[in-house]
Amino acid sequence: METIEYLDSRVEHSGTTYSLVRADTEKFLCVRGDAEGFAKLAFQQDDAKYFPLNAHNAAELRKRLEWLNAKPCGLQTSFGYGDRLGLATPGHIQAARGKNIAALFAQQSVRENARTGRTPQQVMDDAMWGVFQCGWRDAWGADADHLKTTQDIAPFIAAGYTFFTVDPGEFVDNDAPTDSRATLEQKANALPWDVLNDSLENLRARYLNQTFALDDLQIQLTDESLLRAIVKYGRAVAHAVTMFQEIARQKNNAAFDFEVSVDETELPTDIAEHFYFANELQRLNVRVTSLAPRFIGRFEKGVDYIGDLDALAENLNQHARIARHFNYKLSLHSGSDKLSVYPLFASATQNLAHVKTAGTSYLEALRTIANVNPKLFREILTQARERYPLDRATYHVSADVERVRAESELSDAQLSELLNEFDAREVLHVTFGSALHEFGNRIHATLRAHENEYADTLQKHFEKHLAPFTKSA
Ligand SMILES: [Zn+2]
């Protein structure tokens, strides 16, 4: 069998040599030396044994090479790379090298796992094989994204995730800003005070008739604004506490990163509300690593920010001041392609920041396919235009499918231009589940056969994302 070795992967450890090789488009783990414990020998040449990249062999390899295990990244500036196809880590690594930005190469939400049919373990293993292939030795993390219930937690713990993003969005009361006084009082009294280890009377005593000074940001709550804040977020605080305690219990006191995100809720998080939320989490001994408020304006998937950038800059500055006060990172979700926002975000947070991207690596996969397999791209485009009205339902997107040109109007050379257009990006982005369902095998085969093109395309794309956060030494 003709094999090509990935030279960066080759490593000798305790007398055994490991590397990743490719035979045709399939990859194998090559072991020279102690191969005890690896399973399903595929073939053997001289002293080299070749094994498939399955879950068993991934587990055995990470037992031996400790840098293949995900680790918490704490308060270091960090970037999350979602990879729905399980093929993007080498490209992410090409972009991340030398940037001094902690990388979360495994990151998948429960919702994405449902749509892609992948398990937390598969997502972790795919990222790990990429880390191995490229010889990445720096720490890297794994984000269990948008966990909503305590039942969501266990499979991510079992797979070794290190970063837990808890989404208590379903507990946020969006009527709070407009409720009558009587309704607010009634809802406030009904909060889960036992979980909050608190009472309305004690809470009022802690917040009213005083000014919280965070540098030059002054926060004051009136009885009414306090009531609205606790009605809006009180149950979300309680749920975050419950989730934190459950993760800590299942982690057996091992360290982990903990993020709270309310980015997918309807209303922006105001500054006093953010302060209340953070202050309560601190009081309840929740160690927050990062927090994603809902910022003003629109953060749609796979496209730049929609809204007033000056107003956003001020909004980010205020949220960042709270994050610095409580010593956690401010987190930006739906961070793909927000190129006009990153410089503002980096400066507001002074790099005490986390950015999360997901769909944009899929869009770069489509850009690669448009270049190397136009026939397949044409089929994906046609399906996306048909499916968009249905598939957009669970997303915040505003693309008009009428503005996306049909494949019949485009030459092969023009296909990849669609990936630079607002409407086409959103339409192709939110239909990824349908595309994978129909064309998954062909998408994978194309990208495997053109892995360098895909990695180079990702590198170019992510270098633009990372540049604003690169510290000058
Ligand atoms: Zn999010």
Determine the mean pLDDT: 95
What radius of gyration results from the CA coordinates? Answer: 24 Å
Q: Specify the overall morphology.
A: globular
**Number of alpha- plus pi-helical segments:** 18
Looking at this structure, what is the CATH superfamily of the largest domain? Aldolase class I
Could you give the order of strands across the largest sheet?
6-7-8-9-12-13-14-15
CA-CA gap between termini: 47 Å
CATH topology of the largest domain: TIM Barrel
Question: Which stretches are poorly predicted, pLDDT < 50 over at least 5 residues?
Answer: none
Summarize the topology:
Elements (H helix, E strand, L loop, with lengths): L3 E10 L2 E8 L2 E7 L10 E3 L2 E5 L2 H10 L13 E4 L7 H8 L5 E8 H7 L3 H15 L5 E8 L6 H5 L4 E4 L14 H9 L3 H4 L3 H8 L3 E4 L2 E4 L2 H28 L6 E5 L9 H13 L6 E3 L16 H18 L2 E4 L9 H8 L3 E5 L1 H14 L1 H18 L20 H4 L6 H9 L1 H18 L1 H16 L7
Parallel strand pairs: 6-7, 6-15, 7-8, 8-9, 9-12, 12-13, 13-14, 14-15
Antiparallel strand pairs: 1-2, 2-3, 3-5, 4-5, 10-11
Helix pairs in contact: 2-4, 2-18, 6-9, 9-10, 10-11, 11-12, 13-14, 13-16, 13-17, 13-18, 14-17
The protein binds zinc ion (ZN).
Zinc ion binds next to loops.
Quick synopsis:
With 473 residues, the chain is an alpha/beta fold. The protein has 18 helices and 15 strands. Strands 6-7-8-9-12-13-14-15 form an eight-stranded parallel β-barrel, surrounded by seven helices. A five-stranded antiparallel β-sheet has the order 1-2-3-5-4, with helices on one face. It has a two-stranded antiparallel ribbon with strand order 10-11.
